Amino acid sequence: MRILVVDDTETMRTLLARFLGSLGHEVVALVGGREVPAALAGGPFDLVLTDVAMPDTSGWEVLAQVRAARPGLPVVMMTGWDDGQARPGAPAPDAVLEKPFGLDRVRAVLDVFARR
Predict the structure, then answer these.
(1) What is the phi-psi region of residue 77: left when phi exceeds 0, alpha when psi lies from -120 to 50, beta otherwise?
(2) Per-residue pLDDT averaged across 2-20, rounded?
(3) Does the pLDDT of residue 114 top 90, yes or no?
(4) pTM higher than 0.85, yes or no?
(5) CB-based contact 8:57 (threshold 8 Å)
(6) Were 2 and a residue from 26, 29, 56, 77 both cysteine, which residue would form a disulfide, CB within 3.0 to 4.6 Å?
(7) Are 6 and 32 in contact (CB under 8 A)?
(8) What is the DSSP letter of 101?
(9) For 15, phi and psi rounded to 5 degrees?
């Protein structure tokens, strides 16, 4: 799978990129949501993993960008807050990873989307 990871926290972004890469996935890791439109225009993805709370663009904005550019592309939101629930009138994420989560949970979520 080709996976887009969007997270402003370097440690999380690097950990996810390395882990996903070790599983054989191609990973594009971005620091923030402002880079998402260019990344989506640059090639196909199979999955997006985005943090919710970021300083430049929220995960909700990333979700809206993805839905507008690639409606069928699954988006998984990662959050340590109680903000991963769908908002009225806003698109809903395909899954939510509540922080803290283990890499086994990431693998389980990937397995779900790999079978689609």
Answers:
(1) beta
(2) 97
(3) no
(4) yes
(5) no
(6) 26
(7) yes
(8) -
(9) -60, -45
